[in-house]
Amino acid sequence: MLSRIKSDAQTTHRQLVPIWRRRVRRSRVLLLETPYGDNLTLCDLIVGELRMDDLVFEAAFDDERINAVLAQLDAAERRVAMAWAHPAIATWTEAARFAGAADPEAYGERVRRKLKRLGNRYTARSQAAVTRDGAR
To answer: pTM of the full predicted structure?
Structure first.
């Protein structure tokens, strides 16, 4: 009876141990967000290199709204915007870091705000043009 209780307790304990505390073949499982020095995480090292060639910077999009907004960005800002659109990049900071910005967090936020402002301006102007044309 005591051996059965010990066995059940071990099984329950094993099930309740968080994944990042478990061992596989005597090695610990690590979280992808584990810091790895120089502002890198384990995820940055194992995902592989994202190359600038993987991004399309000078492509024309089918949607004229996107083309109009991107045309108002300089080359560095366009690189950040296109990097952010890549599925491997999740945040504006990562996009700015990939694009080579000196202060990725601030620059990524600046580009995000600029794109939002330009998009809102384009929408407002388009609506004003439709209203003006409809009033004639």
So the answer is: 0.56
